[in-house]
Design a protein that fits this description.
Length: about 140
């Protein structure tokens, strides 16, 4: 009986594991801001090393953080599956407006998002690393 239960558990683990999305929380070091910043990265369930994927960058709103999109829209993994793409949700600070501050040199979110997050994603994930296979959108401040 134990062998049967163990076999069923192993089968379900392998079968279900192959069908699940992979949601990562990455820590990306920003040379521009000299700090580590969190980012949620959602891979489609079919993600594998033999393929390359387009990337959608989702920016959160004012007072938000990297986890807002996945918390408020738990269907994001399904969208990654449906569109066979990687979805990246970087932290843009609570009120950065995603710009490089002309006053505070440690507040350089435009550089972080447009260069460092893209470079990290292209280096650590199987992306189609060109502008025609990237999209960016956001909510509120992130849509600014």
């Amino acid at each position: 009986m134990r062998i049967l239960i163990f076999s069923i558990f192993c089968f379900l683990s392998v079968f279900c594991g192959a069908q699940t999305n992979r949601v990562d929380t990455a820590n990306i070091y920003s040379n521009a801001m000299h700090t580590t910043i969190k980012c949620v990265i959602i891979k489609p369930s079919a993600y594998n090393a033999a393929m390359r994927y387009p990337v959608v960058y989702l920016l959160h709103g004012y007072t938000g953080d990297y986890s807002n999109w996945i918390k408020k829209m738990p269907t994001l993994p399904e969208l990654a599956n449906a569109n066979n793409c990687i979805i990246v949700c970087p932290d843009g600070g609570h009120h950065s407006w995603y710009i490089d501050s002309p006053v505070d040199s440690s507040d350089r979110y435009e550089t972080f998002i447009s260069k460092e997050v893209v470079e990290f994603t292209d280096t650590h994930y199987h992306t189609i690393a060109n502008a025609s296979h990237r999209a960016i959108t956001g909510l509120s401040m992130g849509g600014h």
